[in-house]
Amino acid sequence: MLDDAPTQMLIPEATASVRLAQLCQELPAGADLEMLLAAIQAALPELELRQVLTRSGWHRLGGVVDLDGQRIAHHLADWAEAESGGDVDELLFKLADVQYFATRFNGRTHYLVAPTGPLARDFVQIEIEELQEVLDRTLTDPDWFPETLAEFVDPFEFPRLQPDPIGAPRFVFRRLTPIAEFMDSPDAGRTLKRFLADWDRSSAAESESFCHQWVLAIREYLDRDGEGRLSAKPVSALTGRIPTLPDGAVARGAKLANQIHGFDREAGYPFAWYFHMLTSRAVSHKLAEAVHSDLMGAYDYLPARDLKILRDWYREPYGL
What we know:
Layout: H1 13-26, H2 33-43, E1 50-66, E2 71-73, H3 76-84, H4 88-94, E3 100-115, E4 123-138, H5 149-153, E5 170-178, H6 179-183, H7 190-201, E6 214-222, E7 228-236, H8 253-267, H9 272-279, H10 286-295, H11 304-315
Antiparallel strand pairs: 1-2, 1-3, 3-4, 4-5, 6-7
């Protein structure tokens, strides 16, 4: 656990966000993660930044290029709307004698964090996207007749091309979030607040900072009244490397004690099995029930502070 006084950002959040957005624009195409980290650390010297997680496997719509790879449009949807006037048949007619290609941006999100105090909520989280434009598909096909402009722009099923790069990857600033401020907002939610409070009460808090083991995946959405809101879910820095303990693997007694302590050793901090149980289907909730049953009997293999959290969970279970 951190014992130092909370760290304060020397520049306002909005100003820091503008600076980071400009910094990403100024980095040359093809810059690597090490260059990005060095540039951001220089821009925010008061923070001890660390890159803890990269999430990939997502993409966004790109633009339009011709057969020679020359740029026709940067934004497929805007181009299609302008060229069609809202009539997809008119657009298909215009494209009958040309061969254009849609592109997409393959994306990765890099999570950078910096502790700012002793509690789990005390950290700054910076999200930087790494985007690379690649070929996606031909814009038309003789046997394909989209019924709407939306279907033309983003068809559900369409033969995909080999994703050859159109250009080098570039970094794009996404978001800077002082998590302590977010946790004070209505968007944080009761279960997320309980999750972080459980960390602060547990033996896990005696290890590295929460933000060196977890990030918050923040999502924007519209509520029933059409108002913009945020939601957040904890994501482990071990994503893709999380040990599994399904229902059928949960043991009892000494074997169960070895299971949870082995899980913690693999994760790198105490009581890790509990927090992964709350956030991953790969770790069975029966694990907590079995541990609780053991500890109410003849076994004693959890610190008192962790046992109290487990008892609270047993009385009022939750998960994220």
